[in-house]
Amino acid sequence: MTEIKHIKTSLLIGLPIVIGVIIFIVVSMFLNLTREETRFEELALGKETKIYRAMYQDVLVHCSELTDGAMCLDGWKQRGGHPVTLWLGNSQLHAINQMKSGDVNSVQLLYDKLTKSDNDLLAFSEPNASLQEHYVLFEYLKSRLPIRTLLLPAVFDDTRENGLRDGLIPALHELPVMDELSKTKIGREILTENKSVKDTGDMAGLNDTPQKVVESAITDWLTEHWSLWDTRSAMRGQLYNSLYLWRNSVFGINAQSKRKIIPGRYVKNLAALKSILQSCAEQKINVILYIVPLRNDVEPPYVTKEYVSFKKDVELLSSEYGAVFADIEGLVPGELWGRKDATSINGEAELDFMHFQAGGHRLLAETMFELLQANHFLSDSQ
Questions:
Q1: Considering only CA atoms, which of 290, 296, 286 is closest in space to residue 365?
Q2: I need a labelling partner for 41 at 20 to 30 A (CA). Which of 11, 17, 133, 319 fits?
Q3: Are 289 and 318 in contact (CB under 8 A)?
Q4: Please, what's the largest Cα pairwise distance for the chain?
Q5: Residue 177 φ then ψ, to 5°
Q6: Is 259 helix (H, G, I), strand (E, B) or coil?
Q7: DSSP letter string over 302-344?
């Protein structure tokens, strides 16, 4: 009887998984998913915009977050462990619009300018990275690096984001990070909101349960016998992208639609920014806080009053904590911006307000270098 009971339990648990696999196959066929690897980050950027990650001697100096961050940290150690200029950002930092052969991004250009000094440069950027995510990542990196200067962008779009992506969750379980976050209200909120997240894989939350045993066995078998199973993350990305396009079509949303402040998220992100600046002031870390370049040869997709208020809030926080404030919104001229894929089904290419061409990256790198020099944030040997 016990054996029969176990069989029934396994069937009850396994049946939904089998149904899920069937749905997976159908959706895969619908999306025309191939065995070729698809990166959701690139899918979201579109065909016109390509990702570039800066390197030195084939070692990354420009990573995304914890998933590849060890490579950046290991490379820094191999280069001698010099004081670091840390550059955080969103996709503007790693994406090049209408990329041509030989084009590199601003991180690569700035890194090449700093190689004559005992400064090192590391950059971390993720699409739509919020200030809450920057806060967690900064505290994680601060515990591992001798950060001399922080280059921190203020992006109005990204104050609409909330929560942490999976790749940052492990940082919350590191004691130095927990201790630092516990000192601030927003840090405590971040810890509380994510305290139950321990495993970010497909088996999250199933530890020590019969369901995990059954699911693990099925997953192992599928991984070994069916190559398409390895593409399930890419399929999820394509599915989310399809839903995003359908939503935009239904509601008439495009790249030039006004993006309004989401009050609750805005408050949390500004609190995270304040916490970063406070942490830097306490540790005597220099900060260059800048308003990112924005396409302004056409009307920007913001409510003017809200955007102006945002810039003022950022400038006031800079002043309060002794950071260098730079409004470089108009740095990149219109001809150096490009277009992006349609944000709706069967739509036409649209203006890109976040990503610029290689010429824009050159301007951004030169500006950051000039700000570092003008504020004496580089060593005497530079």
A1: 290
A2: 17
A3: yes
A4: 80
A5: -70, -45
A6: strand
A7: B-HHHHHHHHHHHHHHHHHHT-EEEE-TT-S-GGGEEEE--SS
Residues 277/318, Cβ–Cβ less than 8 Å = yes
Please provide residue 64's backbone torsions phi and psi, each rounded to the nearest 5 degrees. Answer: -100, -65
For residue 202, the 8-state DSSP code is T
Q: Which residues of the chain have pLDDT under 70?
A: 1-46, 117, 197-257, 340-349, 380-382
Fold of 36-194+228-374: Rossmann fold (3.40.50)
pLDDT given for residue 336 in this prediction: 95
Listed in sequence order, the DSSP H helices in the chain are 2-30, 40-45, 66-78, 91-94, 106-114, 131-142, 175-181, 185-194, 210-225, 232-251, 263-283, 304-321, 358-374
**Residue 210: how many CB atoms within 10 A of its CB?**
13
In the three-class reduction of DSSP (H, G, I as helix; E, B as strand; rest coil), residue 227 is classed as helix
In terms of residues, how long is the chain?
382
User: From CA 324, how far away is CA 101, in angstroms rounded?
Assistant: 35
Which of 7, 6, 13 lies closest to 219, judged by CA?
Answer: 13
* Angle of the 106-114 helix axis to the 358-374 helix axis, nearest 10: 40
Distance CA 113, CA 131 (A): 27
Q: How far is CA 55 from the centre of its chain?
A: 18
Span 36-94, pLDDT tens digits: 333 444 445 667 789 999 999 999 999 999 989 999 999 999 999 999 999 999 999 99
The Cα–Cα gap between 106 and 97 comes to: 13
Alpha carbon distance 329, 326 (integer Å) = 9
Break the chain into its structural domains and give their ranges: 1-30+203-225, 36-194+228-374
Supply 249's token pair: 């079509």
CA atoms within 13 A on the CB side of 263: 0
Burial track 143-169 (b if 16+ CB lie within 10 A, e otherwise)? eebebbbbbbbbbbbbbbbeebbebbb
- Nearest in space to 119 (alpha carbons), one of 53, 51, 56, 176: 56
